[in-house]
From TrEMBL:
The lineage of its organism: Bacteria, Pseudomonadati, Bdellovibrionota, Bdellovibrionia, Bdellovibrionales. It holds the Pfam family DUF3373. It comes from Bdellovibrio bacteriovorus (strain ATCC 15356 / DSM 50701 / NCIMB 9529 / HD100). It comes from the Bacteria. This is Putative outer membrane protein.
Length: 443
């Protein structure tokens, strides 16, 4: 106790000394110092900083009788996400957007069972793998004066798509629907704005997106000088040579209208994407497996129905994942054959009601057959939106002081099959239940 009292008195003494002002004489700044300070302040005029901190508690239970026997009712986790944005408006025609992110469990003691991510560059950001800082987005928007064209180049805003913003009473965050893909992807996007061709309060954007994957050979003094191969046996490449640049592209129509009849705002997005042949390695020299995916997603958002706080979002995605070759005998992608196609669909209905600084919401997810959903940035631990089967989500949100958001919720996932993976699709009766509490602070 004496130490604590001494510490408080010492701290108060420091504050008192600070209030008395410095005991040294301030010398006039040189011309060079004043010019340097002026130049620094000039640069800061173009920069803006923001970010958010999310602390989450999860309580998860799982029950399953086949293909595995699972019965765990008290899985508890504390986790944290921190993101820092640094944006620059260099000129009205040149804008730069960046975000650094870390996701981690609180005081992670140890981990078991393998790596938290398969593709570190894409999945590492949201893998809760530790205090490492990852580049979530970094891109430049380039446009000409009075131009309807915008070119975006870099690591693009391909995460946090609609309806994710509804949970925490935020404006729309991502450019692309949540069910199309939810992964940080780099590349280039060309946007054409056709607003001037439409009546007042109508907006239309047409986007072409190119987000290729890069396959790299790292072998000693030959790195970058030869293509990779189908697989590796240990550290030795084996099999046929593969492309270093694997194409993936998308086209999107993004339409919105202000004050339509019976609502405050409505928006519709239609998007199609297709990838090239993505090779998968076994590490044992057995793989010649390639997977090619494509899908189409439609999204309808309606805000302020009947001039109330009622909002609705409906998404539907139809996908196909084509497997060619085998990772090992009997292990294709979603099949045990040399060739196979995995057709599937996902339907998501999200709704909420807003009043004052509160919101209550619900979501229903239904999937059929074997849907492929590329989610590398899930907000939850159990990949709710990747569930093959039927799932539900209830939540209550409170906004405090406009920058602090508290959300409590419950998710239940009723699986009919396990998610797509290596080998045939497996049926299951797995049920996941998650209670969570989230505290978000924006700054």
């Amino acid at each position: 106790m004496k130490s604590a009292v001494f510490g408080v008195l010492f701290f108060m003494g420091v504050l008192a000394q600070a209030e008395q002002g410095p005991a040294y004489v301030v010398t006039p700044k040189s011309v060079e110092e004043r010019l340097a300070e002026l130049e620094a302040n000039q640069h800061l005029r173009y920069l803006s900083f923001s970010g958010f901190l999310i602390n989450t508690y999860d309580h998860i239970s799982v029950s399953e009788s086949y293909p595995d026997s699972l019965d765990h009712s008290d899985l508890q986790y504390l986790r944290l996400r921190f993101s820092l944005n640094a944006d620059a408006e260099i000129s009205p025609q040149v804008r730069v957007y960046t975000r650094l992110t870390t996701t981690k469990f609180v005081n992670n003691w140890r981990t078991q069972g393998g790596s938290p991510s398969y593709i570190q560059d894409i999945e590492g950001i949201y893998s809760n793998s530790g205090s490492w800082i990852f580049l979530e987005k970094a891109y430049v928007d380039l446009s000409c004066p009075e131009s309807v064209w915008t070119l975006s180049v870099g690591r693009l805003p391909t995460v946090n798509g609609s309806p994710e913003h509804m949970w925490d009473l935020l404006p729309r965050q991502g450019t692309y629907p949540l069910l199309t893909f939810d992964a940080p992807l780099g590349g280039a996007a060309l946007t054409y704005r056709a607003d001037r061709l439409l009546p007042q309060d109508h907006e239309l954007a047409v986007r072409l997106l190119y987000t290729p994957f890069v396959d790299v050979f790292w072998g000693g003094n030959l790195k970058y000088l030869k293509p990779p191969q189908d697989d590796t046996n240990g550290s030795t490449p084996v099999g046929n040579e593969t492309d270093t640049l694997i194409n993936m592209g998308s086209v999107q129509l993004d339409y919105s209208i202000q004050n339509p009849q019976g609502a405050e705002q409505a928006g519709f997005i239609l998007q199609y994407y297709k990838s090239g042949r993505l090779p998968f390695s076994s590490g044992a020299g057995t793989s010649d497996l390639n997977v090619q995916v494509d899908g189409v997603t439609g999204l309808l958002d309606v805000i302020g129905i009947a001039q109330t706080g009622w909002d609705v979002s409906i998404s539907h995605s139809y996908t196909n994942a084509i497997s060619d070759g085998l990772l090992a005998p009997g292990l294709g992608f979603g099949t045990d054959q040399e060739h196979g196609s995995n057709y599937g669909s996902l339907t998501l209905l999200s709704t909420r009601y807003r009043w004052s600084s509160w919101a209550a919401g619900a979501e229903w997810l239904s999937s059929s057959d074997a849907p492929f959903y590329f989610s590398a940035a899930p907000e939850n631990l159990t990949r709710f939106y990747s569930t093959p089967g039927h799932s539900g989500h209830l939540y209550l949100t409170k906004k405090w002081l406009s920058l602090v958001t508290i959300r409590a919720g419950y998710r239940q996932q009723n699986y009919s099959s396990l998610p797509l993976g290596f080998g045939p699709v497996q049926s299951t009766d797995r049920i996941l239940k998650t209670y969570y509490l989230s505290l978000r602070t924006d700054f």
